[in-house]
């Protein structure tokens, strides 16, 4: 998808494009004279009504007649033919004469609902014992019913002669027998009418004996009928849905949690979002009422069984477990479970287990329990588990013991569960168990005896788990506590090593200044001690934090020496990485790579996972800086796989590997891999992780033209620019924001973003000439050159002079950064040199002096593998050739730029290339010479007024058309241009030359 698709009402229609396309195709077939029907099934709240609303809107926009009826719960109103009475009402309003020609339809008008005796009552059974009078009554009823059915079909057929007809019926699961009979009659007689019937029903309401089941089995055998099973969103689409609904105002971990709990159900997600519900105990009232209604239909025994099952706390509960914790005999339990299965409360799971159809249903049932009832049931579960001689039950025992207020048992089980989770590489679960243990520590007598471990050790483990699970901020908090506990032991070695761990944790959060102070304090505590594992590690971290090259090398070599003397293989590997950094700074990249490979191997042998990932990350960065993008990508792919295998994808270096993998693939033009690497976590992690990956993802989104998604993320990211001393979020988000503003025709905004980003980066890094300044300067010059075009056309010479001064400032920044900056490799690498050449070419374009040689130099400079930047330069080179009337040369560059843009999926660049070719009358594949066959004159007029900021009502007044017609025209324009909003449609129209600058 190019952007988040939306219903005509503006509601996001995530992951429903395929379903909409199927309905659109069915509508087209009906319009051409092939009648058909689509039966839409899905759970309550999954999005059936919105899909039908979109179908109705599409139909109206194409001139079709839309008729809509809805069934209601028979227990509330048992009227026969209720949906069809609503439809006949609408037919009467649309064409009164048509109803007059078929008087039998008057029995279905809602003001006089069909006579249940004449056309709605069940037909008496004939046979032995029935009187002749009953037979005659039955025959009369059947004749009247046939007349009615023929009249409905005839009315619809008559309507379809003038226009295509869409007939929609919602909630067939509540339909009465007469309505089902009439629907069956209509669908069995579909042929050449211009008619499409769309009906929906809840699949989760269709228990085994539901009367609709038999009808569906008959209907789906008809050649004109197709089924459309609407599935819940997957986790990724559910997150996009929630994020779009919240307009970026909800933290990333809350978005993930709501998407997970909703299980892809749109209604559930909406209600959870509206209530900002973030825990199992917080079910919005409206949602709880909907969920519990079905439970209340069960017998008392069945309700009791599902209440007990809800306490299990897991996604499934075994039959044997329920039997063990309930005082029901086997027959009673089986009957109750069968009833819960028939009502779709429970569904069969693996082996002898049952699961709730929706996790939120379990939550709602659980939340409805009385407090005392809940505690009693948890205690029953805990007592049963404690008697089982099974492995892997510590987590369940800890959960039930905590909820049953048996805190000593909960503490012991939580510590054991944390160990189980660590062995599985499940660091998020490990953290949860450790946090529960620490919460219980002060309220349990002899906590250390119960836990079998000290509070200090638990706290350090919690910090490690937090880092590994993607919660670096929480790790910092735990390490602050650990330092106090360590100092209380009066052991300088323990205190020094704890401070070393704290410094490492601070580094993971980008807090360099405090980390330097903490490691200095650690050194003072341990410097006079003999070589040891702890001393080697303190020296190794000192090497990481040293900003002076000579000191870094000295500390790294001393750390290696201490590590070998004490057998600290992990510290030795870490010291080798710092030495590799020094080699790279001295422009010996191959020596650096050799040391990093040694470090990786040594760390892997020692089981030092974090150190191993640090080595892999530095290998990626080194090859990237050399311009060896393919090599860097291969290392990054392997490293990301390794981190995932270890369960460390969200650890400090697991995350660094992930974002570098995204950027390397982006640079080399594999944008699918880049987008995959930048995919937001499908599990709760810290906001810092969400921010970094979202910034990576926004870069790809902008280049692909997914402007709405990118803008949403960038607005949310703005508050994250100054999160810590690591400026990477500001670099990525600032770059994406400036490029987005340029593509959307807002160069002024791009310049403001560049200035703000550079100021933020200088403040965060403490560097006067950060290396990212070269790229930002080039982007600023690009924006200034675009602005000059506008003011020159307007004849504003004063503004033009101001823009030139700002441009000169940007060029000076690029040149001085290249000279005075401190590149990681000791000298400016291929990427830095290429952006410097680009900055010079953009400055020449700003001054109106750019030439073919300048842009060819940019193409050559990015020749190490950045295809996208080369394609942009070819586009600019083609402009120069066109201005010099070198049309053949321009055509060659445009052809190559177009080919690269299409391969990359760079839609904005592709549009710009086609627009330039169109204006220059240079034919390109798939590029029309004029825009006449893209938009109609009326559509262009409507879009031109929309570009001026007019509302639909104002546009309608200007063009003497209705507001609704304006909306239809804009919908068609957005569809033609592939835009998700009117703003994007205007921007795309300018890029493609469909609107001139004066519009």
UniProtKB/TrEMBL annotation:
<keyword id="KW-0547">Nucleotide-binding</keyword>
<dbReference type="InterPro" id="IPR027417">
    <property type="entry name" value="P-loop_NTPase"/>
</dbReference>
<keyword id="KW-0067">ATP-binding</keyword>
<dbReference type="Pfam" id="PF00196">
    <property type="entry name" value="GerE"/>
</dbReference>
<feature type="domain" description="HTH luxR-type">
    <location>
        <begin position="928"/>
        <end position="993"/>
    </location>
</feature>
<dbReference type="GO" id="GO:0005737">
    <property type="term" value="C:cytoplasm"/>
</dbReference>
<protein>
    <submittedName>
        <fullName>AAA family ATPase</fullName>
    </submittedName>
</protein>
<dbReference type="InterPro" id="IPR036388">
    <property type="entry name" value="WH-like_DNA-bd_sf"/>
</dbReference>
<dbReference type="GO" id="GO:0003677">
    <property type="term" value="F:DNA binding"/>
</dbReference>
<dbReference type="Pfam" id="PF13191">
    <property type="entry name" value="AAA_16"/>
</dbReference>
<dbReference type="GO" id="GO:0005524">
    <property type="term" value="F:ATP binding"/>
</dbReference>
<dbReference type="InterPro" id="IPR041664">
    <property type="entry name" value="AAA_16"/>
</dbReference>
<dbReference type="InterPro" id="IPR016032">
    <property type="entry name" value="Sig_transdc_resp-reg_C-effctor"/>
</dbReference>
<dbReference type="GO" id="GO:0006355">
    <property type="term" value="P:regulation of DNA-templated transcription"/>
</dbReference>
<dbReference type="InterPro" id="IPR000792">
    <property type="entry name" value="Tscrpt_reg_LuxR_C"/>
</dbReference>
<dbReference type="InterPro" id="IPR011990">
    <property type="entry name" value="TPR-like_helical_dom_sf"/>
</dbReference>
<dbReference type="GO" id="GO:0004016">
    <property type="term" value="F:adenylate cyclase activity"/>
</dbReference>
